[in-house]
Every structure is written in C-alpha cells, then in structure tokens.
Design goal:
- The chain is of the alpha+beta class.
- It has one domain: 3-Layer(aba) Sandwich (NADH Oxidase).
- The protein has 5 helices and 4 strands, in the order H-H-E-H-E-H-E-H-E.
- Strands 1-2-4-3 form a 4-stranded antiparallel beta sheet, with helices on both faces.
- The longest helix is centred in the middle third of the chain and has 18 residues.
- It is globular and about 50 Å long.
- The model has no long low-confidence stretch (mean pLDDT 96).
- It binds flavin mononucleotide.
- The site of flavin mononucleotide (FMN) has 13 residues, from loops.
Length: 177
C-alpha cells in the first residue's frame, strides 16, 4: 500500500509514517505543498489565536541557510520552518505558561501527517541552531522557530531507522484511574 493510497485510514497512516532521512531532489508539486500548508492552517491552537508562522525554504539560498543551521536536511528539496509569534500566543493566567511551543508542535504534526497522506516524506528536526535560523531568515524578535520539517519524496534507498520500531507498550505511558 502506498502512502498516497486513498483507502488508507488514519491508523494505517500513522503506522506507515516514519522519519525520512534520504530524499529525492524532485520538487513538491505546488498543489500538494498547498494541501500540506492548509493542514497546518486548520490545526487547533490555544484559544484559536493561531500564532504559527511557517517559512517554506526551497530556494538554493534558503536551503544553504538551513544547512548552516543544521546537518539534518538530509537532501530534502524543501524545509518548512515552523515558528510561533510570541505576541500572538495564549498565556495561562494561573502561571503565565505560554502556548506557543504546543501550538507550533500541533501545526507541525498536521503538516507531517498531511504530507505522509500525499506520499511525501518528512522528518521533524529539533537539532538546529535557532540563532542561525533567526539571523539567516531575518526573523522578527517575536518569532520563535520551533521545528524544521524537511519534506520531499523519499529516495529509493530510504528506510525507517532502527528507532522507528521501538515503541514502549501502552501500559508504560497510560494510566487508567
Ligand atoms: C520533537 C522532535 C525532535 C526531533 N528532532 C530530530 C532531529 O533533530 N534530527 C532527526 O534526525 N530526527 C529528529 N526527530 C525524529 C525522531 O528521532 C523520530 O521521530 C523517532 O526516532 C521515531 O522514529 P520515527 O519517526 O521513524 O517513527 C525528532 C522528533 C521529534 C518529535
């Protein structure tokens, strides 16, 4: 079954997805890229404040700027830089905790899973130098980069890493009370 198989349900999709660390150079079709970005737009955010900001890095220069910030592009033809705006995110009155990282993470999950549904691979990358991203992409002071998401068609030699199959049993993370 291919990831783009229209009969694939969510359970099958989430089982099939894995972190892709080897890409073809083929560009992503504009309508597919748009569908991926649309899934990010529809993601829930705290109080629906929608503080996300996504930069699509795909020009030669932008990809060079990504490579200066992380070794984890893995040859992807595009990288989504998922950020949030500190001035827009929700703040919890009890303790001042802010929602930005959570909001941006949910957006990133939507982008990743929509990409998978279209047969496009991705890998969530946190191993990047935020200062380099901020400087290279001239981000405003309120904009915080949370995740880099290299996306593209998996190379023919792409395969899940050994870690992909390692998931703890439900009992280790879930409590019924
Ligand atoms: C918050 C977060 C940060 C991650 N950062 C990186 C990273 O910087 N580089 C990388 O190669 N993979 C990164 N990953 C991918 C994980 O290593 C991967 O999801 C995990 O090992 C499970 O493998 P799977 O995605 O193939 O199922 C990250 C994943 C998450 C959720």
């Amino acid at each position: 079954m291919t990831a783009a198989d229209k009969n694939m349900n969510f359970s099958q999709l989430s089982q099939k997805r894995y972190s892709v660390r080897s890409y073809k150079n083929d560009p992503i079709e504009p309508e597919k890229l748009n569908e991926i970005l649309e899934a990010g737009r529809l993601a829930p955010t705290a109080c629906n404040n929608q503080p996300q900001k996504i930069i699509v890095a795909r020009s030669e220069e932008a990809l060079r700027w990504i490579d200066e910030a992380t070794p984890c592009r893995f040859g992807a033809p595009a990288v989504l830089i998922v950020c949030y705006d500190k001035a827009k995110c929700w703040s919890r009155s009890f303790d001042g905790e802010k929602s930005g990282e959570v909001d941006a993470s949910i957006v990133t999950s939507h982008l990743m899973l929509q990409a998978e549904d279209l047969g496009i691979g991705s890998v969530w990358v946190m191993y990047f130098d935020p200062k380099a991203i901020i400087k290279n992409f001239s981000l405003d002071e309120n904009i915080v980069p949370v995740a880099l998401l290299p996306i593209g068609y998996p190379a023919s030699d792409s395969a899940p890493s050994d870690r992909h199959g390692l998931r703890n049993p439900l009992e280790s993370s879930v409590a019924f009370i």
